[in-house]
Amino acid sequence: MAVAHTFAVALTGVRGDIVEVEADISAGLPAFVLIGLPDAALGESRKRVSSAATNAGCALTQRKLTINLSPASLRKQGSGFDLAIAVAALAASGEIPAEAAAGAVHLGELGLDGRLRPIPGILPSVLAARDAGFRRVLVPTANADEARLVEGIDVVPVGGLRAAAILHGAELEPVDDEPVLLTDDVPVSAPEPDMSDVSGNDEAVDAFVVAAAGGHNVSMVGPPGAGKTMLARRLPSLLPDLTVEQALESTSIRSLAGRGVGGALVHRPPFEAPHHTASAVALVGGGGTRLVPGAIVRATNGVLFLDEAAEFPASVLDALRQPLESGGITIHRANGTAAFPARFQLVLASNPCPCGRYGSADEECSCTPIARRRYAARLSGPLLDRIDLRLTVRRLGLGALRTATDGGTQCRTSAELRSRVEQARAGARERLAGTGWSTNAEVAGPWLRSAQRRVAPAARAALDRALERGGVTMRGYDRTLRVAWTLADLDGAPSPTADHIGRALYLRRGAGA
Q1: Is pLDDT at 1 greater than 50 in this prediction?
Q2: In angstroms, what is the C-alpha Rg of the chain?
Q3: Any residues with CB less than 8 A from the CB of 119 and at least 6 apart, and which?
Q4: C-alpha–C-alpha distance, residues 17 and 160, integer Å
Q5: Which residues, in sequence order, are CB contacts of 481 under 8 Å at separation 6+?
Q6: Span 336-344, mean pLDDT?
Q7: How many CB atoms lie within 10 A of CB 174?
Q8: What is the rounded distance in angstroms from the CA atom of residue 136 to the CA atom of residue 134?
Q9: CA 95 to the chain's CA centroid
Q10: Please, is 245 exposed, middle or buried when counting C-beta atoms within 10 Å of its C-beta (0-12, 13-18, 19+)?
Q11: Is residue 264 very low, low, confident or very high in pLDDT (cuts 50, 70, 90)?
Q12: Percent of the chain having pLDDT more than 90?
């Protein structure tokens, strides 16, 4: 009896678990047995590995071969175990030294010709291997640039099974196989749209500066053509670059979603804008045999924009409520559970009524009052209670457009506004040092209301009255305090004043822009 083993990585959400791949050759009729809770794609690896090994010139044993994926209680998904299974089988038959196979992690899908094909999730897999103490990982050539983003581990790109066997000491003649390359899905560093493109709507621009400085959620209501989408798409240009930890997280999510990463981390905040016909699974994540991240996960550390928000099904919108509070999402399915981060800024844009003309000065609304109420009710109260800033955006008149065109008002660029945002965030980080929070939107309400951080009674008198009269909920009370702290950070004040509290209440109740 001959037993050998090597290692692979099983991804559950963005977390990777080391899997020991054991191979045993025993007496009996020729068979290839795979055990250890494999899914359908992994179960089919028996045919892929056998054909790949034969066509690569290092055929597997003709005796009974048993492959065990340990721990057996952990579900394994996908085709990324192919290379590890083949290497363990070759080590068990003596084709390669068992010590060499056991000293590395192997990732990659095998084609029938023996070449290695790229797989999604390489970055989080290599991170898991490094964190588990491994110092060497073999990856497909097409995934090498992505894998090298992880420091502290030796990344070895291989083009196929034969090359991997030779690398481990197999006595085979090298063969030049053309490696399988990735499709052209690498992110292109296109210039971000600039806030200077926005003519007029100064109050809305100021509100977006507040949102960017504190990480607050925004809701906009206005007729078609008022500039809601234009404003929302320029919010990422106001946000600072991602930190190293955030960049690794966002890049790992992009890799897990099967999108190209290339040889550089994603340093700019992501922007996701799903169509209003998207399902709840498309928004939060899930799927059939493989749990994939949804739009809210891909928007982590960035912006999730829901245009025509009132057109989304109510069940889809309400699925956002828990992630907005917790900053994460745990997807439970019959085939497993996966946890993903979901720390994003939500931006909603909707029309005031089905026809979109309600409140317009030059057009008459054709909707009945009950139709308008039903349309507005599509955004539920619990969801709106989690929105910090609410704006009413109106169409620009010709006078405002001429003033902006003639230079009567100076359009502020995103770079100028981002400078203010970075200064405000620096002040917030200094105040929140040691708490684990970095923006005001993340701060817990009890911490804001603690004796050390409590706003002076005279300053919060208006907010206290609003709570007593039912104008805001307790959650709204805390969220208004967070906005007030952001306004104080933008003004360089040590704590919110009565003016900051009043402006925060004004923005929460629906500022006209």
Answers
A1: no
A2: 28
A3: 78, 79, 80, 107, 108, 109, 140, 143
A4: 24
A5: 445, 448, 449, 455, 460, 463, 496, 501, 504
A6: 89
A7: 8
A8: 6
A9: 42
A10: exposed
A11: confident
A12: 71
Report pLDDT digits (tens) over 400-418: 665 555 554 557 899 999 9
- Cα(300)–Cα(213) distance, rounded to whole angstroms? 16
Which H, E and C letters describe 378-443, residue by residue? CCCHHHHCCCCEEEECCCCCHHHHHHHHCCCCCCCCHHHHHHHHHHHHHHHHHHCCCCCCCCHHHC
Residue 192, amino acid? E
pLDDT band at 184 (very low <50, low <70, confident <90, very high): low
Give this prediction's pTM: 0.89
Q: 3-state class of 491 per DSSP?
A: helix
Burial of 99 (0-12, 13-18, 19+ CB in 10 A): exposed
Q: What is the pLDDT of residue 282?
A: 92
What phi, psi does 266 have (nearest 5°)? -80, 110
pLDDT band, very low/low/confident/very high, at 383 (cuts 50, 70, 90): very high
| Vertex 447: Cα angle to 446 and 452 (nearest 5) | 120
CA distance 126 to 16: 9
